[in-house]
Specification:
Elements lengths: L1 H20 L27 E6 L6 E2 L2 E2 H15 L6 E6 L10 E6 L9 E4 L5 H10 L3
């Protein structure tokens, strides 16, 4: 049984190597149709930045919403007031895997970040203005 498992593993490794080296080859696993080689790319309206607010952080409820929802709504309102809504987009995300004991995880993704997106732990009660200033810096 162990020999069979090893042979299957080797066979799968060879199959994966073959498909990785030749993306034009058809896949025996998907009705012998060619693999998709190009993924459509779009230019979003929010070219200055995307702000991801973890919806799982700081789940204590204040009235009818969570602290992360309050922060997200405040950021949206502030960006709209300053005329920056559209260049920046604020969206909630599921768990980002940081899970701070206090605060909310916020990731700022921008075209100019060079793949280095800052991940911040924000206190929604005292750091809102500081976070907003940090977001605006990505525009400049």
């Amino acid at each position: 049984m162990k020999k069979l498992i090893k042979r299957i593993k080797r066979l799968l490794q060879r199959i994966f190597k073959r498909f990785a080296s030749n993306s034009q080859q058809t896949s025996p696993l998907i009705n012998s149709r060619p693999l998709q080689t190009s993924i459509k790319s779009v230019s979003p309206r929010w070219e200055s930045g995307l702000v991801l607010v973890c919806s799982q952080c700081a789940n204590e409820r204040s009235k009818s919403s969570t602290a992360s929802e309050d922060l997200e709504n405040w950021l949206k309102s502030r960006l709209k007031f300053e005329g920056l809504w559209g260049e920046f987009r604020v969206v909630s995300s599921s768990c980002l895997g940081i899970c701070p004991k206090s605060g909310i995880t916020v990731v700022i993704v921008s075209n100019g970040s060079g793949g280095n997106s800052p991940c911040l732990i924000v206190n929604p009660h005292s750091d809102s203005e500081l976070l907003y200033s940090y977001i605006k810096q990505n525009k400049e």
